[in-house]
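Now for today's protein.

===
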Amino acid sequence: MFLVIIAILLIPLIAMQFSQEVQWSVSDFIIMGAVLTGVALAYEFVSRRSEKTLYRIVVGVGLAGAFLLFWVNGAVGIIGNENQPANLLYGSVYVVGFFGALLSRFKVRGMYLTLLLTALMQMLVPVLALIIWPPPATSWSPGVFQVFYLNAFFAGIFGLSAVLFRIAAQDTCTDKEG
């Protein structure tokens, strides 16, 4: 696991040698290393809850979506730039996912509902941001439509994970009956 994390962190380190557009500080590497380690440990912990391959894949899809959301939002921001206060609203997506997973005890049916709510929260973030920080008073670069489109992409990842959890829940019911 740690070799994969190191290999991933080598990508920006190597890119920094060839491009002025990639400029990571030591703290960037530490934060990203900690996040990657957290995602890997979460995957190990949650995926051990089931021997089913589909469950493990679905956990990976959900965690990949959460990681990508963190990376994009932290690196460049989704609404405006990374320093835009509206981007802090994305923390609510993680809160919904985290507490939903805990309350459902990582069971497939509960995770299905959790990921549906996570997808919904993902789409509510730009709506709330638009109400609180409307343009042109606040930069919505690359544009309001593009922000909603990017949010739909992330909501789609969480929605896909929810649907796959739903399928896994149906497989679990079939296994118990048969």
Observations:
- The chain has a mean pLDDT of 91.
- Residues 144-177 form the longest helix (34 residues).
- The chain has two domains: 1-48, 51-177.
